Amino acid sequence: MKLSAIKKTVMLKNKKILIAGLANKHSIATGIAKAMHAQGAELAFTYQNERLKKNVEKIASELNSSLLYECDVSSDKSIETMYQNLSKDWKSFDGFVHSIGFAPANELEGNFVEAATRDGFKVAHDISSYSFTAMAKGAKSMLNPSSALLTLTYLGSIQSLPNYNVMGLAKASLEANTRFLAAAMGPDGIRVNAISAGPIKTLAASGVKNFRKMLANYTKRAPLRRVVTTTEVGNVAAFLCSDLASGITGEITYVDGGFNTAAMSIEEYED
Ligand code: NAD
Ligand code: 0WE
What we know:
Layout: E1 16-20, H1 28-38, E2 42-47, H2 50-62, E3 68-70, H3 76-89, E4 93-98, H4 112-115, H5 118-139, E5 143-153, H6 166-185, E6 191-197, H7 203-206, H8 211-221, H9 230-240, E7 252-255, H10 266-270
Parallel strand pairs: 1-2, 1-4, 2-3, 4-5, 5-6, 6-7
The structure holds nicotinamide-adenine-dinucleotide and ligand 0WE.
């Protein structure tokens, strides 16, 4: 057979993927959902609360999905109910995307030592890291072999920067979580990975002091001299959840225009 006669296919054909963490059209989860849809995935969505339902419904319908479930990851009961409801529509599925992070706003401003509180630490680690484990635990019995789980992290896990504070600690935990989940679920053929995305102006970033200045700084140092888009993060997410990435697990993949690889740019050096 001629090579050109080989049937071309998309990366996520016959894959059912659950997306958690979509708040609006700017969300990283939205970029991921669009990319996965473009690669042929069937999608289902969770939303945090009634307030966000309409937004999620609109984007889901544009991506041919009417599978929506409420899930507040701070509650085991809410996660359990979500999976019970999902199981009525999907007997089994092929993975989920965890695009959820939260710390109380007062933790994300000013000197780390002064801003840190026991309760802020607890909330940040609970919502931003433990929830990934909790979602994996709940999904386990429904996941097909060759499933893939994915979460979103940030450079603040391995390098300090102003204001990110306790979220840096929570992301370090989330990355370790990714490796331990990969080790625990690998024997069942389930892969677990994280994408470390560069800064993107989403809802979670909109309240952050001097975020625009940070982006300007970023575009100076990043080898690509620009910020990344949710589309670019989405495309890598689609790859990592596809069988093309069947040999990759427990990894943190940077989608940041190379920022983490550069200590200084020529512009910074010469200024
Ligand atoms: P976003 O505000 O669009 O998404 C955050 C989501 O977390 C929201 O959908 C919100 O509903 C959800 N969430 C928070 N608490 C929850 C709870 N208790 N239960 C269920 N859901 C809850 O912002 P985003 O930037 O798309 O963030 C998605 C992920 O990407 C986060 O983990 C964030 O840390 C990570 N990330 C963001 C950036 C960035 O610069 N925007 C960079 C790297 C990583
Ligand atoms: O992970 C994030 C966002 C994290 C985040 C943002 C908020 C704002 C609103 C977590 N919790 C909250 N809680 C709120 O009440 N990012 C990677 C984006 C981000 O946030 C920063 C950053 C960057 C980058 C905060 C300070 C400094 C840099």
